[in-house]
Amino acid sequence: MQAIDKTKPRTLRLHKKLLIFSLSLVVFLVVILTKAPANIQLDASRAATPIELPLSTIGRTIVDAKGKVVLLRGVNWFGMETDTHAPHGLWKRDYKEMLTQIKSLGYNVIRLPYSVAALRSLNVSGIDFGIGSNNELQGKTPLEVMDLVIQEAERQGLLILLDSHRLNDQRIPELWYGDGFTEADWIDTWTMLAIRYKNQTNVIGADLKNEPHGKASWGDNNISTDWRLAAERAGNAILGVNPNWLIVVEGVEKNVPGQKLLQHWYGGNLEGVKLYPVRLSRSNKLVYSPHEYGAGVYDQPYFYASNFPTNLIERWQIGFNYIASENIAPILIGEFGGRKVDLNSKEGIWQNELVKYIQKNNLSFTYWSWNPDSSDTGGILLDDWQSVNLPKQQLLSQLLSSVQVQPLEQPSNPPISPTPTPSVSPSTTSTAQLKVTTDINSNWETGFCVSFKITNQGNTKVNNWQLAFKMNQAKINNFWNADFKQQRAIQYVVSPLDWGKTIEPNQVRDTGFCANKLGSDYQPQQIAAVSI
């Protein structure tokens, strides 16, 4: 996807404040949570089985070093491929906070696009170095910014898939060379990165080239256009210096001998793999990666077919998923996304169907995009670069199981229908200065999602706050914009992330979670927020 560029007394006073704060918090928790224990433990549903790196493949599955299946469920955070030479949004956010939020939402990998031009440059822009940890990025080259983002991602338990998105900073080229760069420039950049991050274990692989299209072909043995042959050359060069990486190969758009489908997205046509598979020196490192979009990106003719949306299943099987079905190699959908997730628009229907398909077939994915500044898809974040687009996150939550590593032979989970049951009307509670509006705004047979809006209805700024509630027959599987901690069986305390602690008068902070239903008494109760 192409992104839019764009002294003692003082000590006594301190002790007094601490004492007041402590007493207030104790009273609050006693009243709301009725003698809850002081020892707060993170909800067990958030504890995923550790992934043992490096990753490899067995048939259709990606496995860790202990042979357990890994489902990569991630986001694209773009910007390093644009003229800023840095991930976007750092003019508004601390980069470490951004990574914390990605992790808190349940994702385990970031596809990180770059351009060859950016990594050869000495300059970055679009960063407010006065925001928190961003001062660490001042004076750094784009490559050094990449280093710091990757290192922090490792500290937070996030994997990184590098993506050669562009050659220059302006556009996605049809081929792996051009725009003033040669094939050697492209491969040399990859081998440099493979060596540089050889001991950075959370860097799991290389998405060799973003969206081959136009003249790009597959299986015709034309050395100047055959993407399959170029992928072999680059992939084997990388594995020659770093045998641990996954090699991720996208499809083309057209020019595949004997292809069955007339229309494909850029990078989405993997029909050629059946007769012309990519041949790597290490066959257990190969992953194929289509891109797939809806009518909001381009109004393809098949969105108007009389059998839409059932025709999508056949298209996906022919275009790419036969590779997984026939146990040839794993599928990672490198990009999909769109602004609409409703059940009425063509784009919304398409996106819901694809989420069901990903779940049913246990496919890996990286969603486009984390950023809100993708013109035709928007992002998981809203334009303030802090708030979460709740409908999108609630849809994707069906895929964000807390168990990200599964036994190799474990059967797939049955798909969860996204069709909502009638939503529960929003409810409002108030405690002193803060008002909480609660809305169960996504509710299906086996799960639901809740949003909390915390409003400062006073005339003074709130510098910190907490929210508490009880919940009986439900188990949280992911949450956003705050830290949800469980106290024993049914008691929860919610604390804001650093960037969300302050609430100005009349300002609203959003947070929420999605959960699995364990019975009919699943709704959160005794909800209250307090400034601390």
Residue share in helices? 10-25%
Largest sheet: 8 strands, parallel
Structural class: alpha/beta
Question: What is the CATH-assigned architecture of the largest domain?
Answer: Alpha-Beta Barrel
- Average the pLDDT over all residues and give the rounded result: 87
CATH class of the largest domain: Alpha Beta
Write down the domain tally. Answer: 2
Strand content: 15-25%
How big is the Rg?
Answer: 24 Å
Low-confidence stretches: 2-47, 402-424
What's the CATH H-level superfamily name of the largest domain? Answer: Glycosidases
Question: Which fold name is given in CATH as the topology of the largest domain?
Answer: TIM Barrel
Put simply, the count of helices is 9
Span of the ends, CA to CA = 44 Å
Q: Looking at the structure, what is the overall shape?
A: globular
Number of strands: 22
Strand order of the largest sheet: 10-9-8-7-6-5-12-11
